[in-house]
Amino acid sequence: MPRIAYFGPQGTFTEQAAGSLAGQGDELVPVDTIASALASVRAGETDAACVPVENSVEGAVPATMDALADGEPVTAVAEAVLPVRFTVLTGQDTEQIRTVASHPHALAQVRGWLAEHLPQAQLVASTSTAAAAVGVQRGEFDAAVTAPVAVTHYPLRVLATDVADVPDAVTRFLLLRRPATPPPPTGADRTSIIAFMPDRTAALAEVLNELAVRGISLTRLDARPTKGRLGEYRFHLDMAGHIAEQRIGDALAALHRRCTNVRFLGSFPRADGVPSTVSATAGDTDFVTAADWVAAIRNGDQA
Ligand SMILES: O=C(O)C(=O)C[C@]1(C(=O)O)C=C[C@@H](O)C=C1
After folding, report:
1. Which of 17, 173, 211, 222 could form a disulfide with 236 if both were Cys (CB 3.0 to 4.6 A apart)?
2. Where is the ACT domain (predicted)?
């Protein structure tokens, strides 16, 4: 039976995402950190891992960026986008709540609500929203900001539901496997890479230009320090399109020439189903016709 590791423990938003991406009969395996979810796939202990990648309010999840960049390559084969509204669970009377724990991304999305309803409480970072609920059960914290499903696993008092400073917040999750042939293109795909840049003037501008001249639309650009010298960064880029498409393959080949290293993180269908727009001169046939023309010249065969 295929096993999917997910960022747990039971009752996280990631468990919900993993459930929506799993096939029938897949076993969901909770692990405590994002790094250990990816480590279990790399080691072959599980077949896939589900982790959060970005939130519409708080941005990228740094632990996921680092776990994708370090270690053996893994590639995304699918994504899910979930609405994120929180439930506040407690084991105390409201007046006695002194500490509220959750994942830092979750705390950041309910800061306004906490200031209004629990102004006396100190905020404590936990490894995940569900880990905060476990902490409340153990008496380590007085309240936890969790995913709505957490209450089915951790029978605590529900202090509030539907809590969100930004009502339409969503988080995007990836399903990752050991590298294999990407799923076939659908016309509404995303390609994800990490570009390790040389320390050279305009290096990032050159990379972005390679995408721009091929009419490729970026859907995300995030920087993370390489943890080497101060000022050295790697860039996480998501773009509309699939590596099977000529303009994407051609652009990635150009980045391979320009960057210190490019890590391919997958081409997979977009959860929002938005089709890629292809400019008038960057369709697959434009590239094939152009390549045939060059080949003909090289063969002394110019029409
Ligand atoms: O802790 C969880 O429940 C998670 O799945 C992690 C996570 C995140 O990393 O952003 C997922 C969605 C919410 O934005 C808050 C926390």
Report:
1. 222
2. 192-270
